[in-house]
Amino acid sequence: MSAKRQKKYKSEIFRQELLKQIFSGELKVGDSLGPCRELSEKYNLSYVTVINVIKKLCEDGYLETRQGKGTTIKSANPSREIGKKSCRILIYEPVISNKTWSSFLKSNPDICDFYPKFVLHYKSLLEKENLDFHPDFIYTNDDLVKTMASRDILAPLDDETIKAAQIDLSLYEPEILEMLSYKGQLYALPFCFSNLALFYNKDIFDSAGIKYPAPDWKWKDLLDTAEKLTVREKNGRVKHYGFLSYFNTSSMKSFYVQGFPPEYDLEKVLKTKKYPDGLNIFLDILNIRHITPFIQNNEDFATDIFLNGTAAMIVCKYDMVKKLSAGKFRWGLTQMPAGRRKYSSCAVQGFGIVQNSKCTPENGIILQKICGNNMQMINLQNLGHIPAYTKLAKKTAFSNIFISQLPSSGNLFINYSENEEKINNLLYKMLIGLLLPEEIIGELKRMQSSILT
Fold first, then answer.
1. pLDDT beyond 50 at 81
2. What is the 3-state secondary structure (H, E, C) of the chain?
3. Could you report the per-residue pLDDT of 391-433, keeping only the tens digit for each?
């Protein structure tokens, strides 16, 4: 991790720790934070970093600084009215940036934003804890929506609300709406999506005299080509790898679902004997073919290697297009290769209406604003996500590659977000030889029984 990124990470951990203490009641309104020097020593941060975090929390309304009194807790529930209407929107900051919301709110002055930017609130909502705030709208995605709907956190978007709010569902691809549904009922509106694609370095392919990846490639084509394009110097140093993966569940899904019908969910997959076949592809990549370095669950590091021109291919989401716009080499992308079936993992981001806020025509109209044309374009420009509206999606670069994969895209895991750390730890143990694929299946079966309860 670079020094700059490490500094930002430590700053965010400190900010979240303060918010956690405020939300839990450990720090109450009027309590003093204490001198910045003491905070700097306690959290092993620079004095400037502490000052900057406190300044930002003051701007957000959680803290206030008065001359002679230092910094005290101002509120655990800051909000500000803009215009006549007021609604609270709970967002997930890594997906939706402050820049995105600032731009959105300028175009929608009738909406009041409320975003604590802390994942603790999601856990509190899931666990039905008493909160000091009650959001009206909440960020969700193709995985979280099923958890939130099954636990009555989200209100269903029924036909009456959709009609009264004049929400036009024909603007979206049906597969995107399906991914934000639970038991056949829509619970959220999407604002962006991204499935996976195979990105490749044209310069490396041309130097080796090898044809570029084709849309009809199978996994064997990728593996055989990657083996040819992995080049080592005489001293053993790798000049460039043939293929990269950052070995987390998202990037591995398209490998290990090979052989299953599209309608298979995790419960059915775990009852078959084909699942380890897909997992064995990764053991083949690492231990037999040696065509990729072992980068466990580190997307930034893997993408940096590819952007530096030291890998021929990588499986990534759409945001790689933006990262490559200032690249050092010629590049291209194509559809994901397929094994015995065509499948590409897909992530859909959206917003739903919180159950207590109820699904009314007015809330439906506001929800449509939050997820509408303006928001989708802002997010495309800032973060490189594909807009959810089909007509907007088709205007983005390479959109045909991603849209054409939607019929074979999906989210294999149920409630993956609640078990992400456990699943990734299992995969890590397999990749370093401590577990066999068959043993992982046993662990996942035990985990699944609690997931589906």
1. no
2. CCHHHHHHHHHHHHHHHHHHHHHHCCCCCCCECCCHHHHHHHCCCCHHHHHHHHHHHHHCCCEEEECCCEEEECCCCCCCCCCCCCCCEECCCCCCCHHHHHHHHHHCCCCCCCCCCCCHHHHHHHCCCCCCCCCCEEEEECCHHHHHHHCCCECCCCHHHHHHCCCCHHHECHHHHHHCEECCEECCEEEEEEECEEEEEHHHHHHHCCCCCCCCCEHHHHHHHHHHHCEECCCCCEEEECCECCCCHHHHHHHHCCCCCCCCCHHHHCCCCCHHHHHHHHHHHHHHCCCCCCCCCCHHHHHHHHHCCCECEEEECCHHHHHHCCCCCCEEEECCCECCCCCEEEEEEEEEEEHHHCCCHHHHHHHHHHCCHHHHHHHHHHHCCEECEHHHHCCCCCHHHHHCCHHHEECCCCCHHHHHHHHHHHHHHHHCCCCCHHHHHHHHHHHHHHHCC
3. 988 888 888 888 888 887 765 555 566 666 777 788 778 777 8
Q: Which of the residue ranges 41-55, 89-103, 339-353 would you say has the lowest mean pLDDT?
A: 89-103
Do 240 and 311 share a structural domain? yes
Q: What is the pTM of this model?
A: 0.71
Same domain, 97 and 172: yes
How many domains is the chain built from?
3
Asked which of 23, 49, 73 is the last residue of a domain, the reply is 73
- pLDDT band at residue 330 under the 50/70/90 scheme: very high
Q: Which domain holds residue 183?
A: 89-192+346-409
Specify whether 313 is located in the same domain as 441.
yes
| CATH code of the domain covering residue 133 | 3.40.190.10
93 has a pLDDT exceeding 80: no
Which pLDDT band, with edges at 50, 70 and 90, does 258 fall under?
low
